[in-house]
Amino acid sequence: MLWWHPQQGRSAIPKSAKPHRIAENFAVKFELSADDLKAIDPLNTGKSGGPELDADALEAFGITIPEA
Predict the structure, then answer these.
(1) For residue 21, how many C-alpha atoms fall within 13 Å in the half-sphere facing its CB?
(2) Could you give the C-alpha distances from 33 to 4, 24, 42, 62, in angstroms and in order?
(3) What is the pLDDT along the chain (68 residues), one digit of tens a residue?
(4) CA–CA separation, 64 and 19 (whole Å)
(5) Is 3 exposed, middle or buried (0-12, 13-18, 19+ CB in 10 A)?
(6) pTM for the full model?
(7) CA geometry: angle at 23 spanning 18 and 27, to 5°?
(8) Whole-number Å distance between alpha carbons of 64 and 32
(9) What does the alpha-carbon distance between residue 59 and residue 65 come to, in Å, rounded to a whole number?
(10) What is the Rg, in whole angstroms, of the alpha carbon atoms belonging to the chain?
C-alpha cells in the first residue's frame, strides 16, 4: 500500500516508532503495474480501519473535536 498512494497522487505516511524503519520504508522504490493498481483500488473504502473512540475516551485524553 505504501507505493499505491504516490501512484494515485497521494502522500503516504509510513507508521513506525523507529526512525530507521521509516527510512527503510521510504528507501524502497518501485512502481506497481496497472494490474496491481486495479487489484488494490477496490480496497479503498474511504473509511478508517482504526478503532472508533467514544466521547468518554476522547475526554480522558483531553481531546476535543470541534463542530464543523
Answers:
(1) 6
(2) 10, 22, 15, 44
(3) 677 777 888 777 777 788 888 888 777 777 888 898 889 888 877 776 666 656 666 666 676 667 75
(4) 29
(5) middle
(6) 0.46
(7) 150
(8) 39
(9) 10
(10) 17
Distance CA 40, CA 5 (A): 10
Burial profile 4-21: b = 16 or more Cβ within 10 angstroms, e = fewer:
beeeeeeeeeeeeeeeee
Which grid cell is 16? 513506525
All residues at 6 or more sequence positions from 52 whose CB lies less than 8 Å from its CB, including other chains: none
